[in-house]
Amino acid sequence: MPHGDPVVHDGGPVEFSAESPALKLDVLKTFNRARACNLHLPHGTVRTPVFMPVGTQGTIKGITTEQMALPPIDCKILLANTYHLALRPGTDLIDDMGGLHEYMNWNRNILTDSGGFQMVSLLELAQITEVGVEFQSPVDGTKMLLTPEMSIAHQNNIGADIIMALDDVAPSTIEDDARFLEATDRTMRWIDRCIAAHKKPHCQNLFGIVQGGLDTSVGGLRDRCIQGMIERNLPGYAIGGLAGGEDKTSFWNVVAMSAERLPANKPRYLMGVGYPVDLVVCSALGVDMFDCVYPTRTGPLIPSTQGLLRLKLAEFAMDTAPLDADCACYVCQKYTRAYLHQVMKTEGSIGPQLITYHNITYMLHLMTCVRNAILDGTFPTFVRQFMQSWYPTEPVPDWVVEALKVAGISLNPEA
């Protein structure tokens, strides 16, 4: 999609307010906690709930920006990573090129992660202090200091529509109350440094990130962090510190508590979550935005409307059916499971590219179905049918049943 194409907002021109000059959230309809919204941003309207594909270094693996913009994908917002872009090619260069939209030929919305997640993913290469985070490059061993001010400066250079505050991320699986307290308090101190450093609030929306471990108690760490973020009156808020291997009961309880206590007039973003079941459950709990590398790294585990397909199994070697008969992507229209089974085993083939294209199409279509079901009043029926397709021969996990019950949805309404 050429960079010069006009920005399109649902319903025509959008007037942003002086308080929120680059973001407007219209809540169209709700079902208990779930909601369908139009999120208006500088590069167009994002229909929520939404899944954001991850293009870590300004590119989705194996897919062009034109493919991302055209149907059936029709992506309205994607994610890029500040840490990796700062390493290569450097954000000064991106700024000189007119910003990341121009640099990657993408005239739709972009969200950039602050680099905070690398505290977990590159933990052995990172040293965290009050000043910031010092990383050792996994590429050449050079050291890079990322402070709240530097993170915001990099993101101002990149020019994303939504930028994230640098937070102190403690792995959710550790048993260290002192570390969670330190991370939560430091996240609150760093948000003020991020706000002070932000030079482009007129065109870039700074989101705060809620930390606090798995503590969901009233007045506990996560509750304190939520209240502190709300006091800063930011354009939007993210739920951080999850998707790190914590048990699913703790996971959904943190999501439910956080979504319930965050403001209804601001977008709610659950970071790093993208497994299809999690998307449906957390949408039911009131989350608007999601991101995850799942679609580009699933390998032979393929999501479909019939559930998860394990494409490496020998049973697919002679299967002439498409991956998903209900999917509109060109992979499902033109290739058989047998062919994809073979190319996924062939090094250097187009297999990963084809699977990634299908996976991203599936994920965005799933969220469209979630949204449409909320809008037309059939959300409970949709959720029940989805869970039946995902768990055709086994019971739905207890954590899913419990979370959906809190969201006002029974998987067995006649019981």
From TrEMBL:
A Pfam family hit: TGT
Catalyzed reaction equations: guanosine(34) in tRNA + queuine = queuosine(34) in tRNA + guanine
Compartment(s): Cytoplasm
Location of the region described as RNA binding in the Swiss-Prot/TrEMBL record: 272-278
EC class: transferase
Protein's name according to its UniProt entry: Queuine tRNA-ribosyltransferase catalytic subunit 1
Annotated binding of Zn(2+), by residue: C327, C329, C332, H358
Complex formation: Heterodimer of a catalytic subunit and an accessory subunit.
Physiological role: Catalytic subunit of the queuine tRNA-ribosyltransferase (TGT) that catalyzes the base-exchange of a guanine (G) residue with queuine (Q) at position 34 (anticodon wobble position) in tRNAs with GU(N) anticodons (tRNA-Asp, -Asn, -His and -Tyr), resulting in the hypermodified nucleoside queuosine (7-(((4,5-cis-dihydroxy-2-cyclopenten-1-yl)amino)methyl)-7-deazaguanosine). Catalysis occurs through a double-displacement mechanism. The nucleophile active site attacks the C1' of nucleotide 34 to detach the guanine base from the RNA, forming a covalent enzyme-RNA intermediate.
Species of origin: Achlya hypogyna (Oomycete)
Origin: domain of life: Eukaryota
Cofactors (names): Zn(2+)
Keywords: Cytoplasm, Glycosyltransferase, Metal-binding, Transferase, tRNA processing, Zinc
Classification via InterPro entries: TGT, TGT-like_sf, tRNA_ribo_trans-like
Active site residues per record: D113 (proton acceptor), D291 (nucleophile)
A GO term from the CC aspect: cytosol
Enzyme Commission code(s) on record: 2.4.2.64
GO biological process: tRNA modification
GO molecular function, one term: tRNA-guanosine(34) queuine transglycosylase activity
List of residues binding substrate: D113, S114, G115, G116, F117, D167, Q211, G241
Domain tRNA-guanine(15) transglycosylase-like stretches: 33-391
Family: Belongs to the queuine tRNA-ribosyltransferase family.
